[in-house]
Amino acid sequence: MHDGSENGRPTEAAKAGPQAPAEAGPWLAAIAEAQDAAALQELRVRLLGKRGEITQRLKALGQLDPEARREAGRQVNLLKRSVEEALEARRAELERQRLEAQLASERVDVTLPGTRPPQGGLHLLTLVTNRLLDVFQSLGYEVVTGPELETDYYNFEALNFPPDHPARDTQDTFWTTDGRLLRTHTSPMQVRYMETHRPPFKVVVPGKVFRNEAVDVTHEAQFNQLEALVVGERITMADLRGAINEMAQALIGPGTKTRLQPTYFPFVEPGAEFAIWWTNPRTGREEWLELGGCGMVHPKVFEAAGYEGVTGFAFGFGIERLALVPYAIPDIRYFYQGDMRVLEQFRGVL
Ligand code: FA5
Fold it and tell me: I need a surface site. Which of 59, 72, 93, 292 has the fewest CB within 10 A?
């Protein structure tokens, strides 16, 4: 049975009312089928516009005699009303459909996994430094830091580099107009620390250092060092060897061999370069990895710090070396270029 409804919802024609004249049928059907607001507007103009069909009929009423005019007027007004109602009903329906589609397209599925914003991470050099500090702290060392902008006194003179000493040439640096300099190594913290502390002590000093270098794959004008200073009674070269061994074993593994080769630094006597024996991950071959310098603290350095009757050793090395070789990084300059393609490879490696 047809009751003027579709799925329980009244059809546009049915909504126009039961008294709609039969001739309205095709118009009401066209209105109900209009697919958008433009099509609806076109129908409105065709029927109700200035020259619209219904408007023409209303105008024509004046030519009828009063008797006929009443009936014809009733008919045409009914027609007009049913068309107006159908237009409004269809407009409302199209608007409802438009809103429904918009809502569907804008629906947010709260059960979908979220998108994580990109997260920062620690630079490989920071990771390596933190690992080194962990190792030294577990060996009983205290961590201290010092100024990067130094005086000539702490960087050179107090470390037994007299003003015109040729050893200064090995560490050329950048000077400020007031005669200060960017420290060339972490060793200036030796005298700075001793001036304000009494032995015995064991300290490590991580930090940035600077040199006026011809930059290449293994040399930067800015790099990082880690310095160790141990001062107390009857400290010997054997303690220095022991400390370097302990560090190497904590870093690389039990039984790691180390080597000291004599060399000259003005602030140690005797002085040596030290290396650790390890497997180069780039080549898979075992070899010596030269790390830095070491030695027994020179009496002149103790004198500058106002110390008497004590002994001690120091060593210092470049942190970049310990990051470049293990991670097979071909060029030291990658560390400071901020290239995310390089940096992201080392996210969380340590
Ligand atoms: C020194 O700087 C001494 N202060 C080390 C020291 C400390 C000796 C305590 C004795 C006692 P040297 O100039 O050799 O030494 O530098 C130490 C290490 O820093 C080098 O072995 C190397 O690993 C690193 N290094 C030196 N120059 C550069 C550079 N331009 N770029 C990157 N790393 C460098």
Answer: 59
Of 182, 187, 239, best ligand 1 pocket probe by most atoms within 8 Å of the beta carbon: 187
Q: From the CA of 94, how far away is ligand 1's center (Å)?
A: 79
How is the chain split into domains, by residue range? 20-106, 124-346
Query: At a CB cut-off of 8 Å and minimum separation 6, what does 116 contact?
Result: none
Q: Which two tokens stand for residue 242?
A: 């022991």
* Ligand 1 pocket test target in 204, 317, 325, 335 with most atoms within 8 Å of CB: 317
Ligand 1 contacts CB of residue 183 (under 6 A): no
pLDDT in tens, 247-298: 998 888 898 999 999 999 999 999 999 999 988 877 888 999 899 999 999 9
Say whether pTM exceeds 0.85: no
State the virtual CA torsion across 45, 46, 50, 53 in degrees, nearest 10.
-150
